[in-house]
Amino acid sequence: MMQSKLASLTLKGFLAFGLFLGVLLSSFAASAQQASPSLPLLFDARERLARPDLSSLVRLRFLTSVDFPPFNFTDQNGKLSGFNVDLAREICSELEISDKCQIQALPFADLRDALAASQGDAVIAGFAVTPELRRQFVFSRPYLMLPARFVRNLAVPLDGKTAAALSKHPVGVVRGTVHEAMLAAFFPAIKAEPFDTKDALLAALKDRKVDAAFADALQLSFWVSSPASAKCCALFDGPYLSEQFLGEGMTIMLRQKDSVLTSAIDHALATLSRNGRLQEIYLRYFPYGLY
């Protein structure tokens, strides 16, 4: 059975692709005028992971998809682009194997079988790490966590700057999602108002039918910066991370037999985190930040 992409809902169906690109381009200009949002470091700065010998490696074939913007998508010129695509290229550069590096896009549903059949060497496409997948594959160390966030309607006065200020206000969530469960577990004093879809939730927030919402920071970050929000709202408090509810984070999936390659990728990720190049890629696609 195909595993879902990381996060309870992807951007597919949430933002039209053209709108996504417009928001992204306008964000680049705006981000130059504001403080850079920091990417939390997932590697200890003192940690030094060994760099395995890859001299015998013939090629490194990354597999991804094109339906998970801003992580992997096809741009207006038909070029494979995105956070994961740029990260794969940086990994190859750091390992000094750029001339052996290939990146191929397949339908998301085909990625797992393609990796198992050795049609590629590593999948970088937002697979959620599950016990079932761990029985067949190995995963790199996480390189990005997707947090949950509150978003508030700016017209609603709040008595405070933390989530405690929402205890007397209706807060919307999408029914049946991990974010609904996480809100109940983390903030039992908050009155949750469930909605059937993310679109219905955000419409209610914009129209002040709820005062705030709790959802995936990735989607909320782009929505508050897009024309769709009409500048009604802003991210509030957080971020909130939970492996129990949100998983282990963004990782790279490899075959179990490729332990040397897995160690090499972990080495590259740690180095990119330490020298700031991972932060540069993050700001390229998330200039307003997720955190």
TrEMBL record:
Keywords from the named record: Signal
The keyword Transit peptide appears for this protein: no
Cell location: Periplasm
Gene3D superfamilies: Periplasmic binding protein-like II
Major subcellular site: periplasm
InterPro entries xref list: Solute-binding_3/MltF_N
Solute-binding protein family 3/N-terminal domain sequence ranges: 59-289
Protein name: Transporter substrate-binding domain-containing protein
Organism: Rhizobium indigoferae
